[in-house]
Amino acid sequence: MPLVTDSLFADQSPITPSSTAQGCLSKMAAALPANPDEAVIYHLRAGEQRILLNERIGDRFSLAWSGAIACTHCGRATKKSFAQGYCYPCFKRLAQCDTCIMKPETCHYHLGTCREPEWGEKHCFQPHIVYLANSSGLKVGITRKKQMPTRWLDQGAIQALPILEVDTRQQSGLVEMLFKERVADRTNWRTMLKGEVELLDLAAERDRLFTELADGLAQLREAHGADAIRTLHDQPFYFNYPVETFPSKVVSHNFDKNPQVEGVLQGVKGQYLMFDTGVINLRKFTGYEVLVS
Ligand SMILES: [Zn+2]
């Protein structure tokens, strides 16, 4: 198995921005601009280095995978990446890799079977938000309160509106299940990347759904306490992405098939880099050791 030469992952510490980088990929850092009319600010993160992508749009850009992958959690070399960045032992052991993270309504903490009860208490027994977003059309989603707006930016949403706040991740999953009767919970990434998404009136959609799902919401409040599921009266958020040209046909790059990805960088949206030669979902390759230039 190829050894990782640099298994360090970027953390929150300030890092000198650079124009080239070598190291293991982390999820891109996306931040809101000071002026909401401007584009989301993206940094590619490889090892301890960061590259500001907004100023590289229009330039030739390349990523070359060395063949090595490091587990995002333990840093050990792994032949294959599981659940977007973990080695197999971590994938089987960590609570954050359990199926209940993707399906929060199946939380089994109360049965005493949480893989890491302390992690669960810190991450799942925290206020969660149920939101409506527009990434490739109307969708419902959930996130930890602290993860706003990162979650929406990672999905390439052009609009988002928090609609309910609940006490736990499981409750957010139960509310989401109810909304899924009427609204999608997935992003069609091809549509999202083509940039042909129409703006929606999310406040009107929220009001419509609250009316249509009133019985279901009342039942959930009855089961979990009237106070556990709280209605929010927020204003929608709007997001612009640094995209010069949207692809007319979406072809994707994959390091596992071709370790060299290059082209003119035309934009960044969600966790995707858009080249004139195709797109790549960098999140999928978390932990891959790359040389960026
Ligand atoms: Zn690991």
Write the layout of secondary structure elements.
Blueprint: E1 21-31, E2 41-46, E3 49-52, E4 60-69, H1 88-93, H2 99-102, H3 117-123, E5 128-134, E6 138-144, H4 150-155, E7 159-166, H5 169-179, H6 189-194, H7 202-212, H8 214-224, E8 229-231, E9 237-238, E10 260-269, E11 272-275, E12 278-281, E13 288-292
Antiparallel strand pairs: 1-2, 1-13, 2-3, 4-10, 4-13, 5-6, 5-7, 7-8, 7-9, 10-11, 11-12
This protein binds zinc ion.
Indicate how many domains the architecture comprises.
2
Shape: globular
- How would you write the strand order of the largest sheet? 3-2-1-13-4-10-11-12
Low-confidence stretches: 6-13
Overall mean confidence score, pLDDT: 93
Ligand list: zinc ion
H and E order: EEEEHHHEEHEHHHHEEEEEE
Distance between the termini: 25 Å
Give Rg in angstroms.
20 Å
Query: What is the count of β-strands?
Result: 13
Main beta sheet: strand number and arrangement? 8 strands, antiparallel
Q: Strand fraction band?
A: 25-35%
Q: What structural class do the secondary elements suggest?
A: alpha+beta
Summed up, the helix count is 8
Helix percentage: 10-25%
Oligomer: single chain
Protein name: DUF2797 domain-containing protein
Tell me what the structure shows.
This protein has 293 residues and is an alpha+beta fold. It has 2 domains: 21-83 and 242-292, no CATH class; 127-238, no CATH class. It is 21% helix and 28% strand. The chain is built from 8 helices and 13 strands. It has helices spanning 88-93, 99-102, 117-123, 150-155, 169-179, 189-194, 202-212, 214-224, and strands at 21-31, 41-46, 49-52, 60-69, 128-134, 138-144, 159-166, 229-231, 237-238, 260-269, 272-275, 278-281, 288-292. An 8-stranded antiparallel sheet has the order 3-2-1-13-4-10-11-12. The longest helix is centred in the middle third of the chain and has 11 residues, at 169-179. The radius of gyration is 20 Å and the shape is globular. The two termini are 25 Å apart. 39% of the residues are buried. Mean pLDDT is 93; it is low at 6-13. It binds zinc ion. Residues 71, 73-74, 76, 86-87, 89-90 line the site of zinc ion. It holds the Pfam family DUF2797. InterPro entries: DUF2797 (IPR021246).
